[in-house]
Task: structure prediction
Amino acid sequence: MSKPAVSAALALALALSAGTAAARDKAPADLILTNARVYTVEDKQPWAEAVAIRDGKIVAVGSIAAVGKLRGAATRTVDLGGKLVLPAFGDAHVHPLFGALSRSRCPLQDGKTIADYQALIAKCVAAVPGDGAIYGIGWSDALFPPSGIPNKALLDAVSTTRPLIFESTGGHTYWLNSKALAVAGITRDTKDPANGTIDRDPATGEPVGSLQEAAMDLVKHMIPPPSAAEIQNSILYVADHFNSLGIVSWNDAGVEYDADGGSAMVDAYKAVLDAGKLTSHVAVSLKWKNEQGMEQLPGLLRAAERANRLGISTHTVKFYVDGVIPQKTAFMLAPYENSGDERGKPQIAPDLLKQAVTAVDGKGMHAFLHAIGDGGVHISLDAIEAARKANGARPTHHMITHMNVVDPADQPRFGKLSTFAQFQPTWASWYDYMELTVAAIGPKRATYIYPAGSIVRAGGKLAYGADWPVGGANPLEGIEVAMTRRTAGDPNAKPLLPDEGVSLKEAIASHTINVAYVNGFDAVTGSIKTGKSADLVVLDKDIFNLPAYEISKTKVLVTLFEGKPVFGDWTDAASPAAR
Result:
């Protein structure tokens, strides 16, 4: 074929393609949401009145008249009567398996006192005959002042014949009875493992009944592992719960894998996805194994490659840099109050952390770092800085989570290093826990607790993650507390460092588009924009026109995932006149 003929054929093909695209753009929508207050979280078009959806995608956002042009004979139109529509929410920090097991294996969350815990555990012992271990989750550090360390005698009062192993809400401590210690062979002569502590009586050296961090591994073999069905059910449970809160995107923060790249959790996600029941965009963060060094990197990369091949987005590595403050396992820049030179220690050596983060960044993956003490935050930022210097500017979005305390000198580094600060907004209202924290770090450092506002003012960005089930996952409660820094729904509650609150728009962005960005889904979800997935929420109240302390009382009426309701019903959301 001659060149003119080729050119003519190409021109014809392009014209036909353009004509097909134009026809598709003008095709009727499947669904139009109209007469609404649509907050898009898009700077160029922050507000609209209507949204059109076709094949699960947003095809138009704008005025009632403009969007109405896509109405056809088969289009369903829902008049929302002025209700607020937002992008569906996301969560950048979730533990689905831990959360589901915390509700299925002797849960303690409903206990408010130590006596409550004992009664709940006694029921579990009675309900499970035999001599095997009883395991549960959900006790609060705050009920064991001043250090958050419980004693075996309290569990011995329930049973001395069955091993009792109970994990704290935060997942950093086991509480054991004497039988569990005996079966595990833990005595006064047992040495603390690396990155772990066997809590002991200061006078006798005898174990008191709690294990911190890596010391938990000494008894994990006594806990029955979850079955494949339990793991799949945990995903289904979380998807249903999160959809009811308006959440359709989450990051599973710390998934285990083996040396060959296999992962029971990834396999469970694949099974749920193949069954058509995964009603959220899910990203997986693979757990860096602190007991190993750089030799684990090839296995980690194999696990990421396999998960991505199976259709489970895996581009992030979760590093546990330190522990928690009340038990003094968080790494601090200066010693804890009245503790001599005790300042905790990193669970990953700073030089190794730099090497690991640099390697992960070099592979185009993102570092997700658990750091609670100001020392943990500092060495995490140092590691990210080392990666930026070694690899140059890359489209990697590293993130540090928790950050109970951030030294003022480190607060501007988030913006300079393009690193997201991931706070758990509702933790600012955990007064009992904050009392333990303040007692451990003293009044000066207590002015640096969860400094979200300062980091934003210094040029940093936030991406919120509830750390569910450690904290409640309700984004509307999170938005309120992010703004007010006090107990949700209580305008008279004492705020925690109120100047560290953020604006409503910042709080919404940090629960939507910013989360989508760090989860790797910003091109797909997180804002209301033509071409994106139709992931939306309809609220019963307009949070832009409410007192801040009323935001947490707002309800999600409908949650859309890929254009389909996964929670709620249009009969609840439509204007009464249009029903």
In short: Confidence is low (pLDDT under 50) at residues 16-23. Residues 173 and 212 are 5 Å apart (CA to CA). The first strand starts at residue 31 and ends at 34. The chain has four domains: 26-88+534-578, 96-222, 231-316, 321-525.
